[in-house]
Amino acid sequence: MSIEIIVLDVDGTMTDGKITYTQNGDEVKSFCVKDGLAIASWIRLGKQVAIITGRKSKIVERRARELGIKHFYQGVDNKKEVLDTLLSELGLSMDSVASIGDDLNDYSMLVSSKVAFVPSNASHYVRNIADVTLSTRGGDGAVREMIEQLIISEGLEEKYLKLWF
User: How far apart are CA 118 and CA 137, in angstroms?
Assistant: First the structure.
């Protein structure tokens, strides 16, 4: 069975894991543009993307909207439970899931997915159960690296490249 949906953690995977507050109390996060292009491309290939994150942030909500991510869950304590519900709604199984996370709150989601990716700077606990430890750090193109590895393993390179020429 092929990978039909990728599930993304945010802090430490889509971002570098740092949370900055301005003097006014506003939250600041930085996202990697390369990750965004790969996410948008994955969607254009007819695949699905979900964000499941433990924190709540208007910034992340905006980024998900910009990228066309339809399945977006914030403030989640049990990521696997949310993923199970989503898969049931979509008629998919864990055999069609690739996920990326970097810390203990991602553990159950990662261990349940068909393919589990972690950035190079992930907690050693999740690195130990991951199928793939990426060469890039969270927020520095780790999601892009994951997606491009999936594109290669799924035999989608030609379709992927044709999106851009």
Answer: 9
pLDDT tens, residue by residue, 14-73: 999 999 999 999 999 999 999 999 999 999 999 999 999 999 999 999 999 999 999 999
What's the whole-number average pLDDT of the chain? 96
What CA–CA distance (Å, rounded) separates 10 from 32? 11
Q: How far apart are CA 80 and CA 78, in angstroms?
A: 6
Looking at residue 128, its amino acid is: N
Report the C-alpha gap between 42 and 88 in whole angstroms. Answer: 21
Q: Determine whether domain 5-162 maps to CATH 2.30.38.10.
A: no
Distances (CA, A) of 64 to 14, 57, 71, 134, 162: 11, 11, 9, 22, 24
Residues 32, 140 contacting (CB under 8 angstroms): yes
Cα distance between residue 78 and residue 120, in whole Å:
23
Instruction: Supply the pLDDT for residue 165.
Output: 85
